[in-house]
Amino acid sequence: MLSEKSRPVIEQTIGVVAERIPFITPEFYRSMFAARPDLLDGMFSRANQENGSQPQALAGSIAMFASWLLSHPEGYPDELLSRVAHKHASLGVLPEHYPVVHEHLFGAIARDLGDAATPEVVAAWDEVYWLMADAMIRIEEGLYGSRANDVVVAPFRVAAKEQAGVGTVALTLEPADGTPMTPAVAGQYVTVQVRMPDGVHQPRQFTLVPGPEGTRRIAVRLDERGEVTPVLHHDVRVGDVLQVSNPYGDVVLPEGDGPLVLVSAGIGVTPMLAFLDRLVRQESRREVLVLHADRSAATWPLRELHELLVAELPGARLETWMEAPGEGDHDGFMDLTGVRLPSGAQVVLCGPLPFMRAARSAAVAQGVPGRSIAYEILGPDQWMLHDDAREAAVA
Length: 395
Known about the structure:
About 40% of the residues lie in helices and about 20% in strands.
């Protein structure tokens, strides 16, 4: 709970701090990486620093947490904290990292705000930071304690590498040592650390898709402008060893027998495959409306598996949108205005951010409450910067 001393200071300064945080966070990261370049080896993504997505995600989480403390003095934004904690755990963030972040973040705040960073302002925002950090540490410790091992990553050997659609490969990974495997929940992801040509390991998260028992299977969409996916596509071979985390992620298959709507685009199909596979294994008879958009039938990742899983569920129906004319049920981009969503449905979204924002708006327009819509973002979560996501977190 925010103290009575700090509350009025946060109320008076949250506007200017929220406005300045997008400028503060890049300076914070520059300062921290200059002092601790080791953090770029396996923990932080260089690409996400360069394109600004990680600083924006940090800015959004801090601003949202402070806003929540003001409007909900008796509680914390559990959805935000859980989402960030799962990502942190997949990267191996530990309690000792939080003082490092604090030192460089508050140094950047002081430099940016100048004389406006009075002792009272700094003390109030310091309280916000440590309230958030302490809550995160507690959640992360719980996540670490629930794993089958005590390592951040373990070696996995590439047992199979298959084309899974134009521009996508599927990698089946088997344990390369005796580290116990933590069971995965459908919809969870792993962090894969990939060694770059300069020797630095870069982390990326990949949702686990159905694969052989005792393995981890991921699908990787190629981004030729990226740093990691070209290595996985062009350089990694069967027999190579990758460092893979335990499975994490809190966007999992909604429980119960109510109807589901699974909405995906491109590589965003991966969590939906995990959900469908789990439903097949449960011999579920739930009503499941499966909606997918892609550039073409050829680029649709793991298309045959997607169609097979839907066919094995008596209550499931698949509807597709393809930009290539005549290759899906509908041509062009997904438009949900003409799709009747089942009453009382739980909706799960995964795909590019603009796609998910449009899909969520369409679902809300049909009467689906925000609390019944979940989403997964494959990368830093920038949606928390937007009002609709904040409303979803409290609806």
